[in-house]
Q: What sequence folds into this?
């Protein structure tokens, strides 16, 4: 068993939008952060020579924050952009993990693992978008958008068994 606290302070999102009325490229940028807590259970599987494989699963809650999202439209003008407000969400989070423990001594093992984590969703809030074009700035009321926040990771750690 494990109680896990996860703090991810600075994800940078950089991608491309696909608005129909504007030529590419359409760079999109935002920053994300996430705080999550999990209860995790592990099962050690039968040894393969000296190595002990294991699997685990966890459930918990996450609070995710997305900064303002900025879309650039350099085909229109170098400073043409649309910016929408960020948002904060809270909800269910879960994880799955699999790895191997390599014994270094009677009580100490080196763990190598893969972990998939579903951190719930991130979203922008309903509100006003600022549309900057060569002719000036316009405000437009928009609905929020949302997406799943998922991570994949490799972990290397030491495990100590109290006896």
A:
């Amino acid at each position: 068993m494990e109680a896990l606290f996860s703090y991810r302070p600075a994800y940078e999102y950089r991608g491309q939008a696909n608005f129909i009325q504007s030529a590419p490229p359409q760079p999109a940028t935002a920053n994300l952060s996430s705080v999550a807590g999990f209860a995790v259970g592990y099962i050690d599987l039968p040894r393969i020579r000296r190595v002990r494989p294991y699997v685990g699963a966890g459930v918990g809650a996450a609070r995710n924050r997305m900064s303002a999202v900025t879309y650039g439209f350099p085909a229109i003008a170098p400073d043409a952009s649309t910016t929408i407000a960020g948002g904060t969400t809270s909800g269910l989070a879960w994880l799955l993990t699999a790895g191997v423990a390599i014994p270094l001594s009677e009580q100490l093992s080196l763990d190598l693992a893969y972990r998939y984590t579903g951190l719930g969703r991130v979203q922008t809030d309903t509100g006003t978008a600022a549309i900057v074009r060569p002719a000036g700035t316009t405000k437009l009321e928009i609905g929020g958008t949302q997406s799943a926040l998922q991570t994949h990771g490799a972990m290397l750690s030491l495990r100590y068994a109290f006896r």
About this structure: The chain has a mean pLDDT of 94.
